[in-house]
Structure formats: C-alpha cells, structure tokens
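[SOLVED] Need 3D model of a two-part complex

Original post:
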Amino acid sequence: MNDRAETAIVFEDVHKWYGKVHVLRGLSLTVARGERLVICGPSGSGKSTMIRCINRLERHEKGRILVENTELSDEPRALAAIRREVGMVFQSFNLFPHLSVLDNCTLAPIRVRGLARADAEARAMEYLKRVRIPEQARKYPPQLSGGQQQRVAIARALCMQPKIMLFDEPTSALDPEMVREVLDVMIELAETGMTMLCVTHEMGFARRVADRVLFMDQGEIVESGPPQDIFDRPRAARLRVFLDQILHHG
Amino acid sequence: MNARRLVSPLVTLALVLILADVAWHFFSWAIWHAVWTLPENASHAPNTDLCRAALGHGACWPVIKEKFRFILFGFYPYDEQWRPALVILCFVVLFGLSLAPRWWRPSLLLVWVVAFALIGVLMWGGVLGLAFVAEDQWGGLPITLILATLGLAAAFPLAILVALARRAEGLPVIRLLAVAYVELIRGVPLISLLFMSSVMLPLFLPPAWDIDKLIRAQLAFVLFAGAYLAEVVRAGLAALPRGQYEAAAALGLSYAQSTRLIILPQALRQVIPMLVNTFIGFFKDTSLVLIIGIFDLMTTGRTATLEPAWQGFGNEVYLLLAAIYFAFCFIMARISRTLERRLAAPHRNIEEPA
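Solution:
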C-alpha cells in the first residue's frame, strides 16, 4: 500500500446490498492524494453508489473505507470531519432553491467551518469568479440555466475548501450546449492538483484529465488503468461492448 | 350545438332570478321590514312587542345593541369589560403586525410573548390594581381568540417536532410514539377529547392538580390541532426532493442545521395553504367548547337570546357571530396569501448569456 501521507481514499473489500441486490461486490481501491480518477460503466454498475459511500450518503455493509486516514463509521464526529473534507457535485445540482447563489455558497463555510460572514462571502465571490458567474451571486438558483446551476454547485462545494471532490455524473442532466462550460470548469479544477473522483461518460474529459480510469460493471471493478489503455486497448469483453455503445450513441 | 346555445343563457337567467329572489327576501327582512329601535317600558328595559310583531318577516336589530356586550364578553364583570375589550384590540394589533412583511423579524416572536403576558394580566388581573377575575367568569370573543391563537401557537411547534419524529428512521421508538400520538388523536372526535379533558381527566389526576377547565380545554385543543398540523407538515417534508437532504449532508451540516436551514424553510412554504386551511378550521372548531360549558363567542351568542323577552331573535345574533368569525378567518386567509407571495420561490427566467 502507498505511504499513508500520500493516500486520500482506501476501499478494502467493500460490499453493499440493496435488499437482496448485491450492488457492490468487494471493491478494493486506493486513491492517492492529487489523483484524478474517472469512473465509468453502464447504469446499475454501482459507480454512483461507490462514490456516494465515500461521504456516507450510502452506507457500506462490509469492508472498510478510509478517507484521509479516518475510517468511515456511524461515529458522528468522524463522519462530520470527513464530510468537511469531501465536496460533492450531484447530477441534479441540488442547490438550495430558497437561498441566493451567494447564500448557497456561504452557508456551510459559516455554519460548519465557523467562518465570519464577510470572510465567507469574500471566499464565495472568489470561487464564483473561478466558475465564471460572479454576476449571478444575488440571484436564486431557479433563475439560472442548468449549466450555471451546476457551476454554482461546484463553487458551493469548493467554498468548503475540501481535500477531495466527488462528481456524480455532473453533466448528465445538462442540455448538450451547456456540457462544455461545466467541463471547462472541472478541467481547470483538475489542473490545481485537487483529488477528484468523477463518475462520467465524457470520454474527452477523461482522456484529458484522468490519471486513471475505472470501468465498473455489476458492482465490480472490471478494468482500471490510464485512459489511453482503457479506451484504446480495452481487454475485457464487457468494456469493449460498453465503449462500443457509448461511442456510437454517446 | 344549437340546443346548447339555447340552454346556457336559460340556465344563467334562471340562476340570476333565483339569486335576485333570495337577495330581495334578505333585503326585505334585514332592512325594509326591520325594526331598528324599541320604546322602553316602565323598568327602562326595551319593550320587544314591536319586534315580536315583525317576527318572521322583519329583523330585530335592537337585540344586537342590547346584547352585544354580553355576546362579546360573556359574564365578565360589567364594569371591568374594558379589559377584555383591550385584549381583543391586542389580538387585532398582533395579527395586523404579523400581516406586514416588514415586521417579520425575530423580535416579532418577543412581541407575541409580551402580548400574551399582557393579555394574561388584563384577563386575570390581581396585579397593578386590577381586580382578580377567575377564568370561569371569562367569556365571549376573548375566549375564542385565546383558545385559537394560543392553541395554534403551541400546536404548530409540537406538530413540527411530531412530523420530524415520524420521519426519524434511526429512532424507532420515537417514531412509534409519534405515529401512535397522531393516529390516536386523529381517530377521536374533538368533542370526545374535550369531554375527556373536562370530565375524565380530573378523575385520574391527583386532587392537588386542580387545573381549570379552560386550561384543560386549551390543552385538549393543542393536542388535537398538533396531530392534524403534524400531518400537514409531514406532507411538506415528504414533498422535498431527497437531493436537498443529501446536499445538506454532503456539505457537513448537522441534522439540526439542515433541518432548520434547508428542510423546514422549504417544506413549510410548500404547505402554507394547507396549514392556513387547518388554522381556519380549528379557529372555528373552538366553538365546540360550548358543550363543556365554556362561554366562548358561540356560546354567549346562543345564551344571549335565552332571556324570555328576546327569545326568537337568534338569527340576528347568528349573523353577527358569522360576521365576527368571517372577519378573523379572512385575516388569516390574507396572512396566508401574503406569506405565499412573499415566500414563493423565484420564477425561472433564464437570461441567455450574451
């Protein structure tokens, strides 16, 4: 195993069931600090469930998950500490519609990190500039386009200055013309050296930023490696079928 | 098609004629043939013979003038009735303040607390040189307003706690208690709950716990309204997308923080119309306390025409009662509409980026 100081996330034989359905079947995985991991696979392969286990939106039932050297459990303090350090961006944005864009971004830094409002707002404006929508700060999420909302969601997660960012199909709910603006923001973020795990089918994005691509199917990691190996020299038959499908229909 | 063209105006005409007939009869009774003043008899009481002659085709408005203080204040000592009058004014000011969005700030809560303290002092007295007036002498509109307002003010927070408890998946015992509370109270008529509070409860409680009938009725009312409101709040919670809970959790907000800052503000605004609907229903349900002998507005109204001289003039009194109930329900409906407008989520209006 890698040196502890260099390890961001460790999965050790992680299992999960939904009732009788075995959705994660013994995942083992180590993610290094600063690593950019793209996870792909057909729907129902367990890829979203896997990254949702990292901040315990889903509970794993067997095995161990370590995040920043803390084991995930029901112990509330450890869980709170982990969630502070793990930012998440959802497929359906999940902005808080009753709060302005600025308040969406300052809420957690003020309430969870204990920042003063002025500092939190300065930080929020800084990240809103990075995602290129500082002029929308006073608006409410329903007044923004999907692409804008997803960029706000990224800024909101970054305002907590997490060590790890999780992206759960961040562009799947977007109209095609808005995918680019969100991916550009994610590429810029990748260049800062942030540890990123991204569930996506955007192969161009994966080729450009991923250090490693995981292909999952039926709750298992079927193949993993650098993007050029996965996309250009796939070994597993299931991966070849999957790539064939997304290349012809994606 | 032709038949339809013919029928529609005919139906309209028929409805207009029926309405006009009803309106004419009401106008004829309430104004044209109404008795407005009565001569006094030897003992300076109004002589109601004139009214009795008009009974059936003309209203007897002097009954209102004669009885309105009893209707409004019940058996509250006559010379002290300025106190419940001030209490009514207190309530009107309180509702008025709460209606104006510019007063919506945390200190409004303090105003409510102070207002209720003031109302207590005015009604009971016994301090500041005010004569003490026991609860069994209270009556009329202040009773209705106190039962409804205090009842709903206490039932609402209770309802929120119960609704949250009902959704607490990790706490099966708490959840079961919440379900049991709601289903038990909902399965029982308010009348039987009031009977229990007034007749049965004293049998079970130690004699030292001598709580007044009014307070017991108030408690029964809080329990009843709490169960209904809890279901309304639960509907709001259930309507909220899971993603809101998940986003709050992923940001590291605690359960209390996410409930207070993310979940409740959205869930409650979704159900404002249903909440106010329930509020209005319970405001009127307070009239059921008449069956346990509390003199609320409805009871004083009925009692007012029991006196032999005034028997038979209940319609006039009921019209007054209806007007009073309507005025307060209308205020609540207005508060609801203001709230809905103010809290409505901003509409989607996408400005295309240049």
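Edit: The first helix of chain B runs from residue 2 to 32.
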